[in-house]
Amino acid sequence: MTKRILLIAAGTLAGVLLLLGGLILFAVLINYPRLPSLEALTDYRPKMPLRVYTSDAVLIGEFGEERRAFIPIDQVPAAMKQALLAAEDERFYQHGGIDYLGVLRAMAGNVLSGHSQSGASTITMQVARNFYLSNEKTFTRKFNEALLSFKIEHNLSKDQILELYINQIYLGQRAYGFSSAAQTYFGKELKDLTIAEYAMLAGLPKAPSAYNPIVNPKRAGLRQQYVLRRMHELHFIDDAQYEAALKEPLHLKRYHQEYAVHGEYVAEMVRQMMTERYKEATYTQGFKVYTTLSSQQQEDAYQALRQGLLDYDQRHGYRGPESFIDEAQLAGGKDEGLDDALAEIKDADDLVPAVVLSANANRIQVYIKGGERQDIGADGLKFARSALSDKNPPASRIRPGAIIRVKQNDKGWVVSQLPQVEGAFVAIDPQNGALRALVGGFDFNRNNFNHVTQAWRQPGSSFKPFIYSASLERGVTPATLINDAPLVIDPGQVGGQKWEPKNFDGKYAGMISVRNALTLSKNLVSIRILQAIGTDYAQQHITRFGFSPKQHPAYLTMALGAGSVTPLQMSEAYSVFANTGYRVHSYFVDRIEDARGKVLAKTAPEVAGQSAKRTLDARNAFVMTSIMQDVVRFGTAARANRALGRPDLAGKTGTTNDANDAWFAGFQPSLVAIAWVGFDQPRSLGGRETGGAAALPIWISFMSKALKNVPVYQYPVPEGVTPQTIEGEKGTFTEYFFNEFTQTNPELGLGSGGGGASQPLDEIKDQLF
């Protein structure tokens, strides 16, 4: 009886299995021909983002829905492959698409561990899913996934399949593929990672969000340990490597600095240019744009501007917390609640938001997102000490629940704040117009308005050299004496009310040479010069430097820089002086390449002395440079001479009415650099915040590094210039005159005797009015 029952059961089972097999075979025969073509795999063309690089190939920007950097299988490090196989599919090179042993092993491992550590999906199955199927958990999807896996295995080699997987898989933080993930999480090339870092990346495909080391460091660490253990068990790494990898601290990107160099403003300029040219293809075709930026100079410019604005902010005091969190979130004291409170507040590079947990007059404790608690003592509270006083109103007091900015330095954490003031910095090669550095503001993520290219501001005294240049063409010489004395201007000459201009310091020097007047930035002398040469003539002359007459009305206020300029425009204008008189046009893209490296477009700049148009007499450029060298040696920018000690620097400070704008424009023949500081909504920077105080230190910081290995330049005297020895207040010196203007042009009402070699400076009678 029992035997008969067993036979019936066996027969029934065999029938069921036969029927099931038949159904499966029927399903295969029906569905296999309907499977999609493998063209997407055999002709793999992934969506590749636009990438923007410096001239020395440092990545500064990436634009596209998917961050991906294709890497051929033969360039994938062995340790990366091993970590991936250990985590996802150890028998990848043995099975035919479905790993039946792997299914049993995964089931047993998950039961023993009590939770899911490894799945049964092979790498081939994941490729099928990622390219053709959804993630829905249905029998139909799993069946089609298995069929596709067989088809893929029969048409592609194992290395081809692995290459597709390594480049296609999503790994969190908008990173697709392991090459992109290496940059996203560690800021390094895939080939430069350690075993510990490979294991961390290999743990991501299972659940990119759950095992994201930035968002969930604890869970990611456990997953990494699992991958390392599997690598060790599979003899991919030895005991020493295993122990070392377990102990190795991972240095993830902190504070969301995505790139090694801060070039956000230029990257955005490139993005806008590319979308105008290539439309939506910009974001998917893998274009590579190489800019003219020097990576070192770009980062130096970023740090110089940033520190300059922070220094300004320090001089004007702590304003108080940015905001306050809900009391319930603070009372709970749980990391998750505090992280939620900080989630929408962006880091500003190393200025990170923090919640104050406790505070007294000498110490505060803060919470920094990610679970970090820090005590900040007296040294770190110096800047903000006044905000700890109970006398402050609650809204401006540092107290529990306050959201403040903190920064880590060599001595620990300190309280800081985001500056309200803005700034701009640009450096250009005056010989061809190539941008070497451009920083459009304090922080791109806070304010993406590009102050270098978009901010039209009054240049103030930094515009005076262009008026003085015009006067040289009319016969004024550096030795011409002009009366620095009060003046009342008729309303018709300024386009408004009666004007009584003053010098910045309120003092007047009387008769003063043109050279000394510019060196000391005497306003009244600039106005008298413009009166003498005529506003229409001056307006026409400034077009030689690229300025538009529309932005500079023909009134006497033009003498003090009352028109509108951008910092980029000023860099081009000062380049005319630096390159001896040629008009160069700024550019920021060197070349555009497709995803395969084929050059699609390349800039051919106009070069000074070659294809660029001469717009200014070389003699004019030389004499003006000579005067502006004195500005740096003895005048309003003497701080630069003390700091840098180079005789080949020239430039001019600029401060507008009420100190709304502070400028320094300066150059050496190899580099022109412009620094600007001001508020977006114009208001006074403060009575002492001149161009020499607010902008010049930024310029000095940058130039001290940019010119470190640049030889000192000796400016040659051009043909047509006559050097003459002049007797001045501090002894004799060499002055320079155009051959035809060794004395002042009488048509300007400037007397005779332009300063011959035997004539002392204080006896020269050239004067205006």
TrEMBL record:
Q: Which Gene3D superfamilies match?
A: Biosynthetic peptidoglycan transglycosylase-like (1.10.3810.10), DD-peptidase/beta-lactamase superfamily (3.40.710.10)
Its subcellular locations are: Cell inner membrane
- SUPFAM superfamilies attached to this UniProt entry: beta-lactamase/transpeptidase-like (SSF56601), Lysozyme-like (SSF53955)
Q: Where is the Penicillin-binding protein OB-like domain?
A: 318-421
This entry carries the following GO cellular component terms, namely: outer membrane-bounded periplasmic space; plasma membrane
Membrane topology annotation: Single-pass type II membrane protein
Q: In which pathway does it act?
A: Cell wall biogenesis; peptidoglycan biosynthesis; Glycan biosynthesis
Reaction equations catalysed? [GlcNAc-(1->4)-Mur2Ac(oyl-L-Ala-gamma-D-Glu-L-Lys-D-Ala-D-Ala)](n)-di-trans,octa-cis-undecaprenyl diphosphate + beta-D-GlcNAc-(1->4)-Mur2Ac(oyl-L-Ala-gamma-D-Glu-L-Lys-D-Ala-D-Ala)-di-trans,octa-cis-undecaprenyl diphosphate = [GlcNAc-(1->4)-Mur2Ac(oyl-L-Ala-gamma-D-Glu-L-Lys-D-Ala-D-Ala)](n+1)-di-trans,octa-cis-undecaprenyl diphosphate + di-trans,octa-cis-undecaprenyl diphosphate + H(+); Preferential cleavage: (Ac)2-L-Lys-D-Ala-|-D-Ala. Also transpeptidation of peptidyl-alanyl moieties that are N-acyl substituents of D-alanine
Region Disordered: list its residue ranges: 748-769
Q: What is its EC number?
A: 2.4.99.28, 3.4.16.4
Provide this UniProt record's keywords sorted from A to Z: Antibiotic resistance, Carboxypeptidase, Cell inner membrane, Cell membrane, Cell shape, Cell wall biogenesis/degradation, Glycosyltransferase, Hydrolase, Membrane, Multifunctional enzyme, Peptidoglycan synthesis, Protease, Signal-anchor, Transferase, Transmembrane, Transmembrane helix
User: Belongs to which family?
Assistant: In the N-terminal section; belongs to the glycosyltransferase 51 family.
Q: Provide the protein name.
A: Penicillin-binding protein 1A
User: Which source organism?
Assistant: Andreprevotia lacus DSM 23236
